[in-house]
């Protein structure tokens, strides 16, 4: 039995559960994106602004995701931090067609990165989705990364840069919650990071 368990772990057949937080400004497309990850028969047909938060579940790779779909409205943003300590990963959604509010998104990102419960988890992965790529006014993912300062000096002390060996894993890609474009790319990256992270924490 012990040998079999060892072998099955080794072969990567063990199911992994991961709790993720989906955050970002209101109207960026968080609920639409999470809805897309769910099985077709479980998807909602009507999407309304989230009040507080909702919990959604879906599967990808061999991960069972418990996704906290947080409201991005100003009055609910204080709720985000309540879940940081328990999170295995974060999805940060940006409306790439709303260039005017990217500085606001950057400010919220700063609050996340500098929060003690996030700082204490330097390997907690963050997936950035530059959403609404189907709109003509949308900015490409590298431009969103630049406007958020993801490659800049400012995050260095907070492990978001990709130079030192102990950097926070992060990835940005364009997505469309409407068509689904880019979502597989993003969730595959996150799944891969989570499998490593959860396996390491259990080891
Ligand atoms: P809050 O719950 O208020 O924080 O918003 P949210 O981030 O969950 O946004 P939601 O998923 O409710 O989407 C807001 C609006 O954007 C809806 O009208 C969606 O149909 C639309 N939307 C979401 N993703 C996309 C996308 O990729 N492209 C386009 N064109 N519209 C999108
Ligand atoms: Mg929502």
Please provide a written account of the structure:
This protein is of the alpha/beta class and 203 residues long. The chain has one domain (18-202): Rossmann fold (3-Layer(aba) Sandwich). Helix content is 30%, strand content 21%. It has 6 helices and 6 strands. A 6-stranded mixed sheet has the order 2-3-1-4-5-6, with helices on both faces. The two termini are 18 Å apart. The mean pLDDT is 90. Bound molecules: guanosine-5'-triphosphate and magnesium ion.
Write the layout of secondary structure elements.
Layout: H1 2-10, E1 16-24, H2 30-37, E2 53-60, E3 63-70, E4 89-95, H3 102-113, H4 116-119, E5 126-131, H5 141-148, E6 170-174, H6 183-202
Parallel strand pairs: 1-3, 1-4, 4-5, 5-6
Antiparallel strand pairs: 2-3
Residues 30-31, 49-50, 69 line the site of magnesium ion.
Extended strand count: 6
Number of discrete domains: 1
Tell me the overall shape. Answer: globular
Classified by CATH, the class is Alpha Beta
Helix content: 25-40%
What small-molecule ligands were found? Answer: guanosine-5'-triphosphate, magnesium ion
The spatial strand order of the largest sheet comes to: 2-3-1-4-5-6
CATH topology: Rossmann fold
CATH superfamily: P-loop containing nucleotide triphosphate hydrolases
Q: What structural category do the secondary elements indicate?
A: alpha/beta
Describe the biggest sheet? 6 strands, mixed
